[in-house]
Amino acid sequence: MRVLYLNLDRGIPVLGDKGGSVHVRSVVTALTRLGHDVTLLCSRAGSGNAPPPGRLIELPVAVTPEDLLAEAMRLGLFPAALDDPQTRREVTLLAHDHALPRRIEAALAAADMRPDLVYERHALFHIAGIAVAALLGVPRILEVNAPLAVEQERYRGLVLRDLAVAREESSWRAADLAVAVSQDMHRHLRAASVAERQILVAPNGVDTALFRPDPQAGARVRRSHRLGDDPVIGFVGSFKAWHGVEMLIETICRLRGNWQRLRLLAVGAGPLLAAAQERAAALGLAEAAVFTGAVPHDAVPAYLAATDFTVAPYPGRDGFYFSPLKIVESLAAGRAVVAPAIGQITALIEHGTTGLLYPPGDATACEDAIRRLLTEPQLCARLGAQAAQRAQAAWDWTAVIGNVTAHPAARRPPVADAAA
User: Which of 141, 183, 218, 405 has the fewest CB atoms below 10 angstroms from its CB?
Assistant: First the structure.
């Protein structure tokens, strides 16, 4: 099939280091490996990693002051409302989305590309994919990784909340197939009146050709960061409020009373990275904790191989709708994972077989699980080996995406005269 993949969220640069960026490249790569001709159209290409296979077309946000004012008038807003930076950002997104169907149509014509399928990553305020699929007369798969209106309001602020929710839910309902990354996300879709027949739950996968046990690569990372043969706990991910890194730092501080050579290898960037570094220094861990910052995604397996095991210390919270990439990547790299028994994590980690689970929000139980793996290195190694086997068999991206594209909703015949 000829697949048009839409990533209209400018906050997820295709070539960036964010989990969303990795997800986009992984899905496009899997589609290509399945033999599909893929055109990836995005609002922001970014930089830092190699592009996925296929065509890459960037249609950046190009909103003039006149466009912004016209959009505000369509929304019934007074021009003065645009003086508020948050409102201005949201109206800019809406104006961008308003122009996208025409811009996408022109870009496809210039590339002489006629898709058989639109595969879209859900983005806040964006409904252009509905119009594009209708114009082309082809099915539309919508990949839903989060209830973005809820997330935006909770963590970053949202002025046009009712409009964001309305557009989000209309986008979900208009999909021929809505791909939910977790059972909790499935519940959000059903609550928005998306029909059960329109939903497929498909947790995130992993590139098993890239993520696999590699002791030699791990040894190189240990040498470059002077980790020696010290016990090393790994954290890989973004430094954001819902990742719980501060709890892990405090736990390591307590454990160093018995394991004075214990080290933390923290890989990733984010708004709370500086705060995490400051907290580690305040607890006397300046030498024990290594913060690498963002690294290219194809380098992450070597950093995982340099750890004894990893910890995903998500705090306890209701509505855990994530399907954490960093967990399946750690498992595929042959590293046991310590994590809370919450949401989709309980389907990724089998307690005592591929990692250790603890009650959400229980810092003492998390510390006990870490202590157990430090005390029982043979158990740690066995869990890691079993984790790699499980990931190779169950979570390869190509198999995950193959199941999505094989769904009957993705195979609806095109409407011949859709563009007429």
Answer: 183
Quick count: other Cβ atoms within 10 Å of Cβ 106? 11
Residues 199 and 87 in one domain: yes
The yes-or-no verdict on residue 420 having pLDDT over 80 is no
Q: What is the CATH number of the domain that holds 93?
A: 3.40.50.2000
pLDDT reading at 413 higher than 80 = no
Closest-CA residue to 333 (of 391, 254, 265, 393): 391
Residue 136's domain comprises 2-205+398-411
Q: Examine residue 280 and state whether it is found in any structural domain, yes or no.
A: yes
Place of tokens 């229980």: 362
- Tell me the Cα Rg of the chain: 22
d(CA 136, CA 258): 64
Determine contact, residues 2/114, Cβ cutoff 8 Å: yes
pLDDT score for 415: 63
Q: Which two tokens stand for residue 134?
A: 């209708």
Least Cα distance to 351 among 361, 363, 362, 340 occurs for 340
Distance, CA of 314 to CA of 346 (rounded, Å): 13
Cα–Cα dist 331/205, whole Å: 11
Q: pLDDT per residue over 273-286, tens digit each?
A: 999 999 999 999 99
405 occurs within a structural domain? yes
Q: Is 87 exposed, middle or buried (0-12, 13-18, 19+ CB in 10 A)?
A: middle
Check if the beta carbon of residue 237 is closer than 8 Å to that of residue 276. no
- The count of domains in the chain is 2
Spatial distance between the Cα atoms of 413 and 396, rounded to a whole number of angstroms: 28
The DSSP output letter for 125 is T
Dihedral sign computed on CA atoms, order 21, 25, 26, 28: positive
If asked whether residues 268 and 362 sit together in one domain, one would say yes
Q: Is residue 420 part of a domain?
A: no
**Residues near 237 by beta carbon (within 8 Å), at least 6 away in sequence:** 19, 243, 267, 268, 312, 324, 326
CA proximity to 26, closest of 274, 148, 204: 204
